[in-house]
Amino acid sequence: MAPASRLWDSPSGYGSVTRALHWGMAALFAWQFAGALLHLLADKTAIERFFWNTHFSVGFTLWLLVLVRGAWGLANLRRRPAHEGSARMARAAKAGHLALYALMVAVPSLAILRAVGGTRGFTVYGIQLSAPRQAAIPALTAPGNALHSLLGWVLLALVVGHVVMALYHARVRRDGTLERMTRGALAP
Ligand code: HEM
């Protein structure tokens, strides 16, 4: 088992829990967005059905994981590495991360509320979490109908921006930002 110090974040890098959450969720988001793009562009094809069949269950898993990640992030807030670059770049990075977290919570929450308030019920991994109802509850379904897809695409745009900035730090500035999330803390 990793020593406790490697589990937690430190100013020189992220610990193993943060890195596992970051890269595990990145893989699940890649899967989720591949399914969403296929749903938009190749509806009712075999490959679309293969990905889209998992949309509710993977989305629900991401919702649980982001809550765990948010709580872990708050517990590690004072230990985390400072942002690299000018004060303006650091402020932009902070705002970008806050927006990412807000959307990672809002996008699945809106869909889950809509599913719970809708007529079809809500089932994940074959387990029914909410039974079908005779009539939908508009207060639960309307926000998801209006915003789930739209904010889902905004989240994808932010994720793309996040990846571009990570590569900018790695390839142009070479300031160790990406390594802190891949390799973790540097040896003292
Ligand atoms: C972080 C997790 C999620 C992401 C990033 C996400 C993303 C998206 C995106 C981008 C679309 C638009 C697809 C299109 O335009 O064809 C979409 C549609 C949809 N999503 Fe999600 N989703 C997530 C979680 C969920 C969950 C948990 C549910 C169910 C409870 C769900 C149910 C749906 C449904 C029914 C649609 C099609 C109807 C609509 O356009 O709103 N999603 N999702």
The number of domains is: 1
Numbering strands along the chain, what is their spatial order in the largest sheet?
1-2
Helix and strand sequence: HHHHHEEHH
Number of helices: 7
Q: Identify the CATH architecture.
A: Up-down Bundle
pLDDT average, as an integer? 95
Provide the low-confidence segments as ranges: none
Please estimate the helix content.
55-70%
Return Rg in Å.
Answer: 19 Å
The end-to-end span amounts to 21 Å
> What ligand species are in this complex?
protoporphyrin IX containing FE
CATH class (first level) name: Mainly Alpha
Q: CATH topology, anyone?
A: Fumarate Reductase Cytochrome B subunit
Largest sheet: 2 strands, antiparallel
What does this structure look like?
The protein is mainly α and about 190 residues long. It has 7 helices and 2 strands. It has helices spanning about 5, 15-40, 45-50, 55-75, 85-115, 140-175, 175-180; strands at about 120-125, 125-130. It has a two-stranded antiparallel ribbon. Strand 1 and strand 2 (about 125-130) form a beta hairpin. The chain is elongated. The two termini are about 20 Å apart. The structure holds protoporphyrin IX containing FE (HEM).
